[in-house]
Amino acid sequence: MTASQHKFCVGGLMALLLLSSSQALAQSTALVSCRASATKVGVGDTFTIKMDAMVQNGPVPNSPSLLAPSTFSISHPRVSSRTMAQMGGSSMYIQRGIGVTWRLRATHEGKFSIPAPTVNIAGKTVAATCELRIRVGAAGSGQSNDSDDDDERPDDDDLSTRGRRLALDEAPDRYAFVRIVADKTEVVVGEQVTLSFYFYRFGRYHQVGLPREPSLTDFLRFPLERAPGVGSSVTTRAGNRPFEARLIDKMAVFPVRSGALKIGKMKLNFTSRSFQNNIQSRLSNDLTITVRKPPKEGRPVGYRMGDTGRYELSATVTPRRARVGDSVMVEVRLSGTGALPGSLKLPERVGVEWLTPEKHESMSVDNGKIAGLRTFRYAVRMGRAGDVDLGAVALPHYDPAARKYHLASVDLGIIQVASGAAKPGAVGDAGAPEAASDDDDVFASVAAARPQLRAYQAAAGSGFAPLWLWSLVLLPPLLVIGGHAAWRGAGGLAALRRRRAVDPAVMARRTLRQLNGKAAAEDNAARVERAVHYAVDAATGMKSRALMLGELADKLVEAGLSPSLAEEISALLRDCESLRFNVDADGGKANGLPARARALVKALLKAKKG
Amino acid sequence: MTVVVLPSLRAGATAVAALLATGLVLSSAMAWADGDEPFKQGVVALQAGHFEEAIDQFEAFADRAPSHPDASYNRGVAYLTRVRNGAGRPGDLGRAAAAFEETLAMDGDDAGAAHALALIHGEVARRRSRGGRQLVIARPTLDRVVVQLTSERNWGVAAVLAAWMLTFGLVLRRYSGGYQVAGRIMLPLGLLLLLVLLPVYLWSRQLRTTTRPGVVVAREAILNEDDGKRQPGEPIPEAAKVETGQRDGRRLHVRYGAREGWVAADTVRLLHIR
Hints:
Mean pLDDT of chain A: 82
Strand content of chain A: 35-45%
Strand content of chain B: 5-15%
Number of helices of chain B: 9
Radius of gyration of chain A: 56 Å
Largest sheet of chain A: 5 strands, antiparallel
Mean pLDDT of chain B: 84
Largest sheet of chain B: 5 strands, antiparallel
Number of strands of chain B: 7
Strand order of the largest sheet of chain B: 6-5-4-1-7
Helix content of chain B: 55-70%
Largest interface: A-B, 50 and 70 residues
Helix content of chain A: 25-40%
Distance between the termini of chain B: 60 Å
Number of strands of chain A: 32
Order of helices and strands of chain B: HHHHHHHHHEEEEEEE
Structural class of chain B: alpha+beta
Shape of chain A: flat
Number of helices of chain A: 9
Oligomer: heterodimer
Low-confidence stretches of chain B: 1-7, 28-32
Structural class of chain A: alpha+beta
């Protein structure tokens, strides 16, 4: 080999080595991270530390480990597998790994640093890249426990089918609660509703005593759990927190009436060290079941509300021959699913007396449904001779699954009854027949049933519409009173107008308004004179026109006017007179008359008001 | 030549009137024909002595068809037949009484129903006394006595008449002489009557729209207070007619005479009078 060839080989080997190393490095790349759900908690509070360890094209990590200080109690880790795919250019990288969750509980106050958790990857112990510093305060001070609940939210993929079914979007309580689940919330009267009661808990809580059952006021109930309270737990989710849900009771309930019926609340007591062993109580949710009546369409005659299920009837009758007064035994067996009726409608006949039956029952659970057999044993006393047809026992019922009515029936057949006294020891014989009471004779005088329906028209309603009544009661008197008031008002208005027309004060003002600067002086003087006389009449009630001018002033003073006013009035009237009758009188006086008149009239009317 | 004979106008009018009357009767009969199959089967069953089946059929008829006095009567007879044959159940006399009360509510002149009802009340009283129970006498209060003297419509009409009397009094008072005297009498009288009759009408209407008659169909109905405590005094006997009010879940408010309270809803059957 030449030196150049040697160099080529060494270079190629080194390149190969580097390539494989890088490949190996790339292949064994691991990403290990961790985080805590809280950095501040209180004594007794729990928090989680979660680690994700992902490896690309290498062995799946294993053996996770967390060494917490002794002041924390730590639970066994919960490990789940993870797979992640990443696209890079034209390649796809698959990462596989595990997610690990430890639950820790703080027991002492202080500041603590928890070493990062570790995991084994291809034989090497790898520590997570995170810092875990926790501050523990007094009990109840764990406010920061609310931080990022998403971190501890379990993936629904990790839950079992039952766990996913029991998951809730919101947790009614952070630590524990009771939940009632119904398989259906809309049923018909008598249809089975299966109730399951679950206790959800976030920590290690222990039930104390038996739970208090819900009221179930309008329901019949049958237990479905043989050993209530001893069910297995399943991991589920409520909100973003993992809970363990345990079935504590299960029952079948049958509504006895229609309406929106409430189940009631279950109460459960529990305790835990985190509550210093004090007993805590929780009430469950209260479900409402909407119950409706079965449809009227197709409802058979004789159907009793509540007979809901799927039933079958069979019967045995012994003996088939008897004498009058004997009793025969009729055993009717009712089987099926649903709440079996407690009594049957019997084919009562004249001369056949059914005595109170003996009842036996055995109930069971068939595929989650209440089923059973109920036996009714009757003694039937024969009261008349001949071939007596006992008839058929019929039980119309509604099947909610098929949504239709069925009729379970069984024909009891014929008993041959011979006449004559009963033999001693006859089946069901309780001794001599009871002395017939005279009760049945009381109604002997009641007329027989009517064979057909006569023509009948229902009577019209006996009501009286309030609108009509109030109209007929209130309108007439109101119209009369209103009309009378309107009439009197109109008359009063006219009288007022008339009074106003002859009121001297009004006439004085009206006359003053008629003064016209363009009119002749004697006309204005006449008007002024009239206005003043009206004003005097208004102020004093005195007809001054009938008085002599010489005595006017004195009379005015006697009437209560002031002497100066009386003099002015007299002077004005004298000037008016001279202007009217003396055409050569001073024209300057004529110009001042309207103003003087207005002032005097104003003064007089003011004196009137006073 | 064709001769056409036209019927007279009178004959034609008579024929039309007869047709209309027939149509009216037929229409009322038709209202029952469609749904009276249960009634017919009930009659057949009762005649054959199958009283249980007869009861079912008449009850089915009552559920589906409009009320009819004869159907209610037959239902009462079916329950009585069960009692007479020694197969009576607790409350059968009450159910029979409810049926006969319905008959009388629809036809007050039905002597058969009145007679049967009287017999039932007598039998109930006799059984109670045989059992050492005290006789219960329910006296209606004065307001019920007054209001039930006549129907709501009649009270309304009377109130209207009183209003018109008041109106005439107001008008006549303006005149003189005899008219004025008449006005002076009619005005206060009309006002007084109106003040009395109007509240009676309103009360009658209130009762008609908020209450419904019922009959006790259990051995007895125990009256309870609002808080569920039992009232002192005797329970309401079977077959007693009560006035029912509001319903609250499984209890019903009733009034019996001067007493009122709550009873279990299934102890009272409401009368269906449609």
